[in-house]
Structure formats: C-alpha cells, structure tokens
Amino acid sequence: MSEEPNRWEGVYRSKEEAETSWYEEHPQVSHDLIAATGAGTEVAIVDVGAGASRLVDCLLDHGFRRITVLDLSETAIATARARQTQNAPVEWVVGNVLQWKPAGRFDVWHDRAAFHFLTGTADQDAYLQVMDRALLSGGHAIIGTFALDGPTSCSGLPVARYDATLLSGRLGDGYRLIRSLNHEHSTPWGSVQRFHFGLFRKA
Fold first, then answer.
1. Does domain 4-202 correspond to CATH entry 3.40.50.150?
2. Which of 42, 188, 181 is nearest to 112 (CA)?
3. Which CB contacts under 8 angstroms, 24+ apart, belong to 181-185?
4. Which residues contact 199 (CB under 8 A, 6 or more apart)?
5. Which of 46, 62, 164, 175 has the fewest C-beta atoms lying within 10 Å of its C-beta?
6. CA distances from 127 to 49, 114, 118, 191 (A)
7. Model-level pTM?
8. For this chain's UniProt record, which GO biological process terms are given (predicted)?
9. What is the predicted pLDDT for the residue at 1?
C-alpha cells in the first residue's frame, strides 16, 4: 500500500476530473442506496476512497450536514473541496483507510471502488476492521466493486471482483445484505464497466 498515495496523487495531478474512468456527473446509484438506508439528514456519513467524487455535492444538496470525505490523494480532496463553500459541513481527510482512526463513528459507510483494489487478505482484513470500528451498530455499509464480469484491473492495478455472495461472505456474519444490484457504468469515453453494489446492515 505504500506506493498507492503517489500513484493516485499522480493520477489526479495529470488528469482533469472528467478524464478519469470512474467520473460520474451525478452519482445516482450511491445516492439511491444511501436513501434506501432510511437515514435522515442528521446522520454521519463517510465516503471512503472518494477521490474527487461528486457524491459530497449531492449529499450537501440534499441537506446532509455530517459528512466525512477520505482519500489517499491530497489533490483529489482539494478538487472536491474547491467546489464547496468554505463553511460546508464536511470533514476532509487525506489518508489511508487501512491506518485511519476516525474521531467519531458513522451511521453510513460508503465506498465506491476502493475496497476492490485490496487483493490481499491482510489488507482486506485491515479495511474491514477499520470499517467495523467506525460503523455504529445498526448502521449501513455500501460497498461498490467491479462485478464478476467487470474489469480485472483499473489504472494499472489488479482488482478483486465480487457478487452478492462473495461480498457477503467477505464481510461475515456481522453484516446482513439488504440490497444487491448490478450497475453498468459508462466511462467518459463511452466504454462500459460492470459494477456490483451491496447495501449491508451491521448487527
């Protein structure tokens, strides 16, 4: 994991926001799954591996006021932050989720396409331990990864692909699958990437 901050910093320094394959003008699937948790706007939400994602914009537009955005890339965080007003109720965190020690706990943990870069068991376990410590009992985890028929790599890195069964098994008995959906993401240049999203409730 030590080389990844430099890798992702390089990506965000060399490309415009809309030149990345994962760019979404409006993150509809993520928004819909957050809405499906039934969470009110007072809940605490963290977007893990957010990059310069516009999910934070969407959440602010819908009245959420306790948002944390976490990414390895300082440039990505700066890009997302620059779109907001100075008093936006967002905590911006530059760091590696595997070593993250959040000050508070969360009702919703959202991750679109960060977990699937963890291909080793040790890193996956470290991620899930951080998530479990950070997420309140009864809280929800939303994890989006490449689907079983999705790409085998992204930005030159291999990925682990999942369906509902594999992702449920990886999270373990402490999490109950609430919703599973497959999604075809169209990149800015028109190719299609197949994703799987799982919405889980923590026991």
1. yes
2. 181
3. 181/29, 181/33, 182/147, 183/29, 183/144, 185/22, 185/24
4. 33, 36, 37, 140, 141, 142, 177, 178, 179, 180
5. 62
6. 12, 10, 9, 30
7. 0.95
8. methylation
9. 39
Domain range summary for the chain, segments of one domain joined by +: 4-202
Residue 141 pairs with which residues in a beta bridge?
109, 200
pLDDT value of position 182: 97
Report the alpha-carbon distance of residue 185 to residue 197 in Å, rounded. 12
AA letter at 164? A
User: Does residue 2 register a pLDDT over 50?
Assistant: no
Tell how far CA 29 is from the center of its chain: 12
Tens-place pLDDT, residues 112-162: 999 999 999 999 999 999 999 999 999 999 999 999 999 999 988 999 999
- Give the tokens for residue 88: 């936006």
CA distance 80 to 75: 9
